[in-house]
Design a protein that fits this description.
- By secondary structure, the protein is of the alpha+beta class.
- The protein has one domain: 2-Layer Sandwich (Yope Regulator, Chain: A), CATH 3.30.1460.
- The protein has three helices and six strands.
- It has a six-stranded antiparallel β-sheet.
- The longest helix is centred in the C-terminal third of the chain and has 12 residues.
- The radius of gyration is 13 Å and the shape is globular.
- The relative contact order is 0.20.
- The mean pLDDT is 93.
Length: 106
């Protein structure tokens, strides 16, 4: 099941306090970037983030879920209605997220 554009717009609105939030559509889902680093994505209208130590500490009871068949588990963010919570989560995670690898030229 693909994610809806409405849910994406809702999440982007909740993250509007942060600068440099971008996204990329991928196979009916959306990858979320914060300052050019992948934080997580929207899969089946669920916000999932990478399970880095800071995210686990920030959400100690968050369940692990699969974004899609064959993928690595990610953390489900339940508190999407809380703008301050989401902003704090993304801030906490940023330093631990890996930088994007440069694209190879063909």
């Amino acid at each position: 099941m693909a994610s809806s554009k409405e849910y994406l717009e809702f999440i982007l609105g909740q993250l509007s306090e942060l600068e440099e939030i971008t996204y990329r559509a991928m196979m009916g889902e959306f990858i979320i970037y914060y300052r050019s680093k992948i934080v997580g994505g929207i899969y089946d209208d669920r916000l999932l983030v990478k399970p880095v130590k800071s995210a686990i500490s920030y959400m100690p009871t968050a369940p692990y879920e699969l974004p899609y068949e064959g993928a690595k588990e990610m953390l489900l963010v339940d508190e999407v209605d809380n703008k301050e919570f989401l902003t704090g989560l993304f801030h906490a995670m940023y330093d631990e997220l890996p930088a994007l690898k440069p694209k190879k030229k063909k």
